[in-house]
């Protein structure tokens, strides 16, 4: 329901900024270049498909209109309404796109809280990029010590979305590698002796993830220089790093390499 209310307010505000641009662009389209004619033609082709209720077509219509907003500014409110309709149809990509617009304050009034809610909804619908967004967001909240009854334990939430990314058939290899880096460093932030976290960080490092190698290099240097509280911590850290060292090579972990 709030989407409908939000859309009505958004349209009223948005129309104030688009009328003059729309008139100018409409005139350009009538007299203008072949490119603007083709763009407008393609817009109406997508609109006809979207009107049949295909949620993916509604998303495509919005993205196309947004990409060509200089030519299609007078059509963006219609495209935005189709995007919201796709959200109501529980389209995961539409939900993510609307969340991004709200988060950035692009076309619509910025609303971080609604963006957060929609991004979680998109992740629940199966969008792997939204899952990664949730992983990063909850990781940052854990580091900041932000915990609410409504959102629960940020660490457990981060762990949940990390597991969902790894399980996802949609998530690409590079996204899973990034997720391993984010969650492993979060787990090591909580405890440097977390063996599973070391294993995850090692997987990312051994796959050539530059930031993972940088983190391992720093921790390795600390261990070598007895920077931990006692020898036990140092020995545990070196032992946990050993599988990584064996694959990457200790020389790759030396400063300046």
How would you explain this protein's 3D organization?
By secondary structure, the protein is mainly alpha-helical. Helix 2 runs antiparallel to helix 3, helix 6 runs antiparallel to helix 7 and helix 12 crosses helix 13. The longest helix has 30 residues.
What would you call the structural class?
A: mainly alpha
Mean pLDDT: 81
From the alpha carbons, calculate the radius of gyration and give it in angstroms.
24 Å
H and E string: HHHHHHHHHHHHH
Overall form: elongated
Helix content: over 70%
- N-to-C span: 56 Å
Strand content: under 5%
Q: Got a strand count?
A: 0
Q: Quick one: biggest sheet?
A: none
Number of helices: 13
Low-confidence segments, ≥5 residues, pLDDT <50? 11-31
Summarize the model shown.
By secondary structure, this protein is an all-alpha fold. It has helices spanning 2-31, 34-50, 55-67, 69-72, 76-88, 92-104, 112-125, 128-143, 154-167, 173-190, 195-206, 210-224, 231-248.
Question: How do the helices and strands line up, and which of them pair or pack?
Answer:
Layout: H1 2-31, H2 34-50, H3 55-67, H4 69-72, H5 76-88, H6 92-104, H7 112-125, H8 128-143, H9 154-167, H10 173-190, H11 195-206, H12 210-224, H13 231-248
Helix pairs in contact: 1-5, 2-3, 3-5, 5-6, 6-7, 7-8, 8-9, 8-10, 9-10, 10-11, 11-12, 11-13, 12-13
């Amino acid at each position: 329901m709030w989407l409908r209310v939000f859309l009505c307010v958004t349209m009223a505000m948005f129309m104030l900024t688009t009328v003059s641009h729309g008139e100018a662009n409409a005139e350009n389209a009538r007299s203008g270049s072949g490119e603007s004619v083709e763009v407008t033609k393609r817009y109406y082709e997508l609109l006809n498909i979207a009107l049949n209720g295909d949620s993916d077509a509604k998303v495509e219509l919005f993205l196309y209109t947004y990409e060509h907003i200089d030519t299609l500014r007078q059509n963006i409110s219609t495209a935005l309404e189709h995007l919201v309709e796709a959200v109501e149809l529980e389209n995961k990509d539409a939900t993510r796109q609307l969340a991004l617009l709200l988060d950035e304050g692009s076309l619509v009034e910025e609303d971080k809280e609604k963006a957060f809610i929609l991004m979680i909804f998109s992740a629940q619908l199966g969008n792997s990029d939204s899952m990664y967004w949730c992983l990063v967001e909850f990781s940052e909240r854990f580091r900041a010590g932000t915990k609410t009854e409504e959102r629960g334990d940020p660490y457990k939430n981060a762990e949940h979305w990390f597991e969902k990314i790894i399980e996802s058939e949609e998530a690409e290899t590079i996204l899973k590698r990034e997720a391993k880096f984010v969650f492993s460093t979060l787990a090591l932030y909580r405890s440097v002796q977390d063996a599973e976290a070391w294993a995850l960080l090692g997987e990312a490092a051994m796959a050539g993830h530059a930031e993972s190698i940088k983190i391992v290099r720093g921790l390795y240097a600390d261990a070598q220089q007895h920077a931990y509280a006692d020898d036990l911590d140092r020995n545990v850290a070196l032992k946990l790093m050993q599988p990584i060292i064996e694959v990457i090579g200790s020389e790759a972990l030396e400063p300046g390499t």
